Structure of Cell division ATP-binding protein FtsE:
Amino acid sequence: MSQPVLSLNNVTIFQENNAVLTNINLEVNHGEFLYIIGKTGSGKSSLMKTLYGDLKLREGTGEFVEYDLAKLKERDIPYLRRKIGIVFQDFKLLPDRTVHENLLFVLKATGWKEKQEMNVKINEVLDKVGMKSAANKMPHQISGGEQQRVAVARALLNDPEVILADEPTGNLDPQTSVEVMQLLREINQNGKTIIMATHDYALIMKFPGKTLKCDNGTLFEVVQRTV
């Protein structure tokens, strides 16, 4: 039996000095697709930020992609992030660079050196998300849905063990949201673990999966029909 990709034990998540989630116990195995739902301010994003090293784990124990979150040092964070891919609600593409240059920037920042290897990798991930033809376009020249596809491609660059998707459909219309979800589901079916924070219940009904809810400072599993 392989180790869980994420294990949290008696964890309390803090936003500044406020405990937003308490007594979290959670295991996520390789290849799972997990939704984390809840209202704005319920702690979803704070939990995600703790996983990718933006917030310190101050109480409890946690291991994520073989990193001890409670002992995580500032210098460890770039190495942790090489093992995960992050997709944000607002895409976070650099506006003054082409799609190709956006992805090249990430590869260089994570230690890639060989130009040809980088170009091959960029073409590969853009092809996976159906955006190869947009490589030389600027972010403002493509739609929101296309920008999010590029953001997913960016998350795949370092062949991560896990993709953290924080409200990835939050800025998209319903049809485009479905297309991005289909893409994430396909990536999951190819073996990637995906943890997705969302408040889009309609999407969860359309693409059912294991669902945890943040509510009143706790995190608990919900049965699909009660979402």
About this structure: The chain is about 35% helix and 25% strand.
